[in-house]
Fold:
Amino acid sequence: MSELVIRPARRHELQRVGEITVAAYRADGFIDPGANYERLLADAARRAEHAELLVAVDADGVVLGTVTIALPGTEFAEVCMDGELEFRMLATDPVARGRGVGEALTRAVLDRARERGCARVVMCSAEAMTTAHRLYHRIGFHRIPERDWEPLPDFRLRAFAVEL
Structure:
């Protein structure tokens, strides 16, 4: 595994961040081309403006993955409450899978929450994202079904949390 650096996304990387996010969701069949959610995933500039956008880069500075961090009451927050930090849109470039990118980004989110003094990190994931669920459980996340919700009819998101 090459060395990964997790850091805030830079302006010149935002288009690539959007492309990686869309590619990751498409690779697993989680979005249809042209869907509204695809446009949201592609718009990394908006995420960087209204949330914290981290990237994982290799030793050459190539962006391999990304995650969006939101605080309660902000545009990209879905389920977080006071004292919590939420992450969304965790994505690894399909060609970089198996290199620990998703885990490194998730652990960076936990570090960021600790730095901010948050007591808990929460997130939602589609029921079909079982590979991601295994990662979250391995890191210590547990289900919080009382926060599960449906952004669209018959599309349920499962909520997870980890105490810090």
